[in-house]
Structure prediction request, 202 residues.
Amino acid sequence: MEIQLQELIEQIKKDGVDAAEIQAAAILESAKAEAEKIVAEAKSQADKIMAEAKNENAKVVKSGEDALRQAGRNLLISFRESVTRELRAIVSDNVNAVYSSDAFAKLVINAVECWAGKPEADDISVILNGSDLAKLEDALFAELKEKMLGGVTLKANDNFDGGFRVAVNNGAVYYDYSAEAVTDMLSDYLSPKVTALLKEAE
Prediction:
């Protein structure tokens, strides 16, 4: 009887240990699976964060490159505009210098002679501002006396600063040689050449 009791105790112990080992193994397996799940989620989250960081970094780099390109374009445009302004100022100074010199009367005379030689040109009017006309009147009268008898007239008009205008056929045809118009014309002619030179230098 004592032997049977001992065997029963041993069996109970063995069954309890086996059950505990099975339960422990199940807990361990569950913990392992949970740990693997946590690691997988952490890795997935880390990959997602890295991808977002790379994407954000790429956006920042592109934005920086775009900003640099735009700044470069703005600088180049500003430089070209500055060169164009300087060019216009130089052209304007030179035109005004010529129109303020003794050569101005000769320019007017040459223009009138050119127009007077055209058979279709009739009734030529040379228009100057009042101060230029007062200064040049004697020289122009002396040179153009015969042509003035043939239909060339001198007129004053203070709506422009320097230079002259020629009206032909009673104003039907009008040519503007004012300082501003000549400066515009020369600047328009020179600007593309300067722009081409600047592009070559890029």
